[in-house]
Every structure is written in C-alpha cells, then in structure tokens.
C-alpha cells in the first residue's frame, strides 16, 4: 500500500522512551512502550520503504521487514543515532518520547540518603532532535509526534511551526490512550490541513498514518 510512493525510500523511525541516568541504578524515564513507533516502522516497511528503526529502551521484538535496528538508551545517544541514520534519508518520523532534560552529571556511585535532608537534582535541557534536523539545509521530510494532555491542536500546531516540521501527529495522552496502550487516536496537522485518524489499534493507525505521510510526501517532494 502507500501507492508505491515509499517504494525504496529511506525512512528512519524513532520509537520508545529515553532513559537519563542519575546514578548506576536510577534514571529519569517516561511511559513510552515503543509500540506506536514500532507499528509505524512496520507499516513503512510494508509500504516498501527501507526502514531504520532507532529504538530507546523497550522490550519489543523487531518487526518484520525492518532493514536495520539501532538500540539506544539516552536522548544524547538517540540524537547521535538519528543524525547518522538520517544523513541520506528521505523521511524521518519521530515517534520517540525523547526526554526533555537530563541530570547535569551522572553520579559514579549509588546516591545515599542523608538523614531526611531534601535532595535537589539539577537538570540540563536535551537538544531537540527534530529541531536540529529541520535547521539543516538539506533535510528529510520531517514528521513529529505531539503527546499532549490538554489543548492538543494549539500545542501541536505550535510544535509543527517551532520545530519546522512537514507534519505532526498529535495524540491526547491519558484516559487509556497514547502511552503504553494497544490503541491510540491521532489528529494529523500540516501547514494547510488536518486529518482525523480515529481510535484504533496502533497497527491499523500506523498504516493510515503512513498512507497520509506518503500522500503529503508526494505532494511536496514528489
Ligand atoms: O510508545 P507508546 O507507548 O506506544 O506511546 C506512543 C507515544 C504516546 C509515545 C507516541 O505516540 C508519541 O506521542 N510520541 C512522542 C512523545 C513526545 O515526546 O512528544 P513531545 O510532544 O514531547 O515531543 C514532540 C516531538 O519532538 C516528538 O516527535 C519527539 O520525538 C520530538 N523531540 C522531543 C524532544 C527532543 N529532545 N527531541 C525531539 O526530537
């Protein structure tokens, strides 16, 4: 499917969370299971694309038809892997829930408690992978995801513009949708349009998403 547009195209998909280490036994992470991104990667492969899947720490088997899987842990590692994989890619789809912050430093030994005293963690902002890609002169067609708990359209359109994306797939998270679940529901936005992809399991939703991406890709890059 995908009307042959994606046949032989190089597509990079990121999936899953990132883990930002605090010390040898603790980290800051998030609830992403990787299921949405893995489904998107599989759907892109079914549409004939040559897919590289950059995966954060998840416990999922590699879907059929994926050309290459790169496993990473932190946002910095995901940034490096995505940058390398997209050097000659046609499309990048960022379904990963990349940690926005990391601890300023990773303690070499396990942190100890100190008689009830408060502990403050200093955090540094991670680089934005999508924004970095869109700032490059020649870059792939860029599709972001937006995980929002409120004001979905406003925040999604803001990310579309601010990160310089071609499309953004917005999902309202919480209420049994989005993170960790089998189902999702997406509203897709691009500069002059939008489309509803109503609640469905992630495999079906991913195929619909890939068809829409193929349509837009053909329209602007065809
Ligand atoms: O993995 P599942 O359990 O199946 O859940 C799926 C999902 C809810 C994680 C997925 O559908 C989703 O919404 N992924 C994006 C989650 C997210 O981090 O959204 P955000 O609004 O914080 O980021 C917006 C976009 O910028 C995303 O495409 C993200 O990959 C990208 N980003 C964010 C931070 C950063 N430093 N670099 C980035 O590229």
Characterize the structure shown.
The protein is of the alpha/beta class and 222 residues long. The protein has one domain (2-99, 122-221): Rossmann fold (3-Layer(aba) Sandwich), CATH 3.40.50.10300. Helix content is 27%, strand content 29%. It contains five helices and twelve strands. β11 (183-190) and β12 form a beta hairpin. The two termini are 17 Å apart. The model has no long low-confidence stretch (mean pLDDT 95). The structure holds ligand PMT. Keywords: Decarboxylase, Flavoprotein, FMN, Ligase, Lyase, Magnesium, Metal-binding, Multifunctional enzyme.
Which properties best describe this structure?
ligase, binds ligand PMT, 222 residues, Rossmann fold, alpha/beta, 12 strands, two-stranded antiparallel sheet, 29% strand
